[in-house]
Recover the amino acids of this structure.
């Protein structure tokens, strides 16, 4: 599995995860629109596609075909690695 | 100069004719037989003398890979204006039209994207009156 730390180390990729975590599956077109219109991040579809590929390699994004279109979903499971590596004990209040 | 006609490729003209008239509500402007296919155009009943949309057969070998790639990424090939995207979304969903993007507020407009069942994604847009003035 590719490095989740590298995947998370980019502001655009974190925004993409925010967008995907917020709701249902989204197409590349919808994600590009959200980056431009909601976040003021204007970049080519190809650049967005490459960011999504890094997230997918790290297991943070999965894709699913519905009809003839491809939808992207946030999959948080790899983030458990952070908790396992640096366990955070909650102190009882 | 003005835009009198634009086109989308359709997999099957008789099917496209039904979808674009019965489901979307456009009306036929021209239907002129040309060999196996027709010169088939539709217009909006709200603007019957306005821009025509040609429903063009998709037989050319370049069309399929072009449209498949756009469809995969959710990219619409045409854009239709409506008064209320949420209302159209509800009406069309009731007619089993599949949306790849639910109504989305993009500040200057509300948009949504649906599958026209003829091989294209189409964007609906309702521009906000205050925007872009």
């Amino acid at each position: 599995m590719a490095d989740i730390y590298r995947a998370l180390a980019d502001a655009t990729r974190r925004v993409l995860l925010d967008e995907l975590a917020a709701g249902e599956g989204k197409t590349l077109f919808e994600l590009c629109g959200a980056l431009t219109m909601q976040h003021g991040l204007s970049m080519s579809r190809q650049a967005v596609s490459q960011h999504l590929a890094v997230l997918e390699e790290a297991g943070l994004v999965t894709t699913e075909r519905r009809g003839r279109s491809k939808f992207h979903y946030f999959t948080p499971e790899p983030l458990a690695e952070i908790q396992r590596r640096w366990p955070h004990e909650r102190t009882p209040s | 100069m003005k835009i009198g006609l634009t086109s989308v490729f359709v997999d099957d003209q008789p099917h496209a004719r039904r979808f674009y008239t019965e489901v979307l509500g456009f009306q036929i402007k021209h239907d002129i037989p040309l060999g196996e296919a027709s010169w088939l155009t539709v217009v909006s009943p709200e603007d019957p003398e306005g821009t025509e949309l040609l429903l063009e057969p998709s037989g050319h070998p370049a069309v399929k890979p072009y449209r498949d790639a756009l469809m995969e990424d959710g990219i619409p090939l045409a854009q239709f204006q409506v008064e209320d995207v949420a209302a159209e979304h509800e009406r069309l969903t009731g007619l089993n039209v599949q949306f790849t993007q639910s109504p989305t507020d993009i500040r200057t407009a509300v948009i949504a994207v649906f599958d026209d069942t003829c091989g294209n994604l189409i964007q609906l847009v309702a521009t906000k009156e205050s925007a872009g003035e």
